[in-house]
Each structure stands twice: as structure tokens, then as C-alpha cells.
Amino acid sequence: MKLGVRFVLLLALLGAGAAAMGALSLSSDAQHLTQRMLDAHSERSPRIELLERTVRFADGSEATLRLAEGFDIAVAAEELGKARFMTMSPDGRLFVADMVDYNLSNEGRLLILDDFNEETRQFESEISYLTGLRGPHNVAFYTDEAGNDWLYLTLTEHLLRYPYRVGDTEPSGEAEIIYSFPNTQSEGAEGVVWHITRTALFAGDTLYVSVGSGCNVCEEAPGEDRAVILAMNPDGTEARTYAEGIKNAVGLLWVDGGLWATENGPDHLGADAPDDTLFRIEEGAHYGWPYCYELDGEKHADTSLEWQREPLDCSRVPPSFAAFEPHAAPLGFAHFGSDAHPHLKDSFLVALQGSWVVEYGAGYQLMRVSLEDGATDVFLDGFLSEERERIGRPVHILPLERDSFLMTDDYNGRLYYIFAS
């Protein structure tokens, strides 16, 4: 049992008291243990109080959000389309992928934002670095042994790389396709196009790429790069499956010598299952999809379909590090180290894009996750009104300093700047 779960159970036990449990009483040792756990949790993760913050947009409208005490929020850029993941270039410029829509049009863009004004808290320049893209999602930079810089761009069908030079306003060379991904829905998939984003991340000289499933729930064709995280050389050679059974790992980070990933669970089990998750990824592990899902810290077999292959033993599926409510849709996330603001120290901040079915009302938040025990706290919310009106859908978080970061919203094409006030 995780420490965070034990902590919750002890709180529940104390809260019930004699009124609910009759003769039940805790021993002196148990009381002392509980108090030590409460004190330790308080030291690791200072309580977050949410305060209202009003933001105003270029069209004259405004919204009231709830943000961690001690922080403020500003709109740093607007009209960014379906703004997805951000990356800071070697020369300190912000690259943002605009996917345009979920219909895989060929109108996607890669934008450069620059000249951040500290007084207005806005970027004053915007350049279209690339246009005519199909499903752009994120950028990664890499410097090879010869000292050459490369820009890697994930599209739905391809992983591209371009030579990169400081100050470029357009690629300084032709695109090289270094890897190709499945480009159609899996057999049996119906309705929307499933999981069109790919995420690339460098850790040293290894390139990791996540590829979602081609359906909501199905058995993928053997050998297809679906529901996997791949590892390969910087030129795309020697690609291998690093981990599998991950339905849709959108966010990737390398932290404390290991790979971490968010996962979006399937949507066919109703409003209350399964939990969405955050994993520390083990090489060679299978994370359960489509045969298993997680709910309330337990792994369960999915019996909604009649499987053609031998189902996975769900008891052997690695547990998540942290879990979020069903359909919360965790996407990008950021790591803050021991020198960060107390409300961010030694934690992840996870963007919960929010439920595709708006009536579910899940997500639409930034959630803090303690690196100590996976305990979660809301850091920012209010992107879904009580009337179920979407004000924004958080996608990605990029730290700037120990107490400030950027957040993309692909619903209204906005970029937010959150900072200690």
C-alpha cells in the first residue's frame, strides 16, 4: 500500500471516531504514529490554499480561476490555435506546436514566441517557423558529437529532424524522416481518429517517443508501434520497444535517472472508471492495456470484450506512482526540484486537460504530485465553469525559474504565465 493511501485511511479512521465506530479506539502508539505521518506529510507538501485570480483576454472577456496562494497568473500570448507542447530552443526562444484541430488537417504550424516583456508579462513577437504540418505535437533539440544542433518535430505519421542554427526563423536545411508511425485507426476502431499525437524526449543520446493506441479498446496487430514507448538512436536507428501496454502516454519526462509518463485510460467503462495515471516507466514492462485497468489503487481485468489472445495477468502489471480521477486526461507535466518554491518543491505539476465528455466534469486543472509519495493536490483550477462551460483545457507545462512556468491551453489557443507574486 502506498504511503499516500495509508495517510488517507488513517485520516478517515480518525475522522470516524467513537461516534461511528463505537468501542473502537486507537492506542497511544498508533496516535503517535498518525501524528508523525501528519507532520511528515505537512513538511513534504505544504498545504495549498486556492485563491481567486481574474485574468483578462484580448477580446475584453475575463475569467476567474483558482490558483495556489502566493502565485498569480497572466495571459502571455493568444491566438495560438490548438497549442500543444512547448520547448525552449538552445538560443532561448519558445517553440510551440499548433496542431490546428483533431482532424489531421495539413494546416498545423510550429511557432516561435520571443521577446518576453517582464512588465506586461507577454511575448511581443511571433514567427511561423513551419507551416503546412499534419498533427504537429512537440519539438526536441539535440546536439550531436560534432557540435551540430538538430530540431526534432513529431507529426502524426513521421518523426522529422532539421538542422538548427541560432536565430533561425525557418529551417536551415531539408527535413529528414528518421521514423514513421502508424497512420490509420486500428481494426475495430470507430468514430474519432484515435491518438494522433507523438511525443519525443531526449535523455542523453537516447531518443524516446510515445505512440498511443489506434483505438479505445482492441488488440492491436502484432508488431505495430501502438500503445508503446519507443527508444532509438538520434538518427532513428536501432529502434526498440522500451515499454508497452500504455494506451496513450502523452507526457514524457526523464527525472532522477528514470523515464516517467502520464497515461490516459480507456473510455468505455463509464464515468467512474478507470483512473488516469502517472508511471515511473520500467524498461521491458507491460502496463496492462487493453487487458487491465486501474481503479482506486487496484488493477482489474477488463472483461468488456472477448479477447482473441491470452489476457495479461493483471496482478503482474506495475502500479501507478500517482492516480487521477477517471477521464481527467493527464497530458504534459513538469518537474520542480529541491530549490523550487515550497508549493512546487520536489514535485511534478501535471496538466489535466479535462474529460472529452464535458458532463463528466473531470480534470481541467493543474495538479501537484509529491515526488515523495505520489500524494496529489490541486494547484490551479477553474477551467470548467459550474455550468459546464469550458474556459480552457490545460495541455503542457514548461518551468522557467524556481517559481514560475508557462502553460498551454489548446481549447482557446492561449499561453498562460504563472509566477510567484
Folded structure, characterized:
Residues 66-372 form the Pyrroloquinoline quinone-dependent pyranose dehydrogenase beta-propeller domain. It comes from Candidatus Kaiserbacteria bacterium CG10_big_fil_rev_8_21_14_0_10_59_10. InterPro entries: 6-blade_b-propeller_TolB-like, Beta-prop_PDH, Quinoprot_gluc/sorb_DH_b-prop. This is Glucose/sorbosone dehydrogenase. Mean pLDDT is 90; it is low at 1-43. 41% of the residues are buried. This protein is mostly beta strands. It is built from two helices and 28 strands. The strands form seven sheets. A six-stranded antiparallel beta sheet has the order 1-2-25-24-23-22, with no helix packed on it. The protein has one domain: 6 Propeller (Neuraminidase), CATH 2.120.10.30. The protein has helices at residues 3-21, 28-44, and strands spanning 50-56, 62-68, 71-77, 83-88, 94-98, 108-117, 122-133, 139-143, 149-154, 158-164, 176-180, 198-203, 206-211, 228-232, 240-244, 252-255, 258-263, 276-281, 292-295, 298-301, 322-324, 330-336, 347-352, 365-370, 376-381, 394-401, 404-409, 414-420.
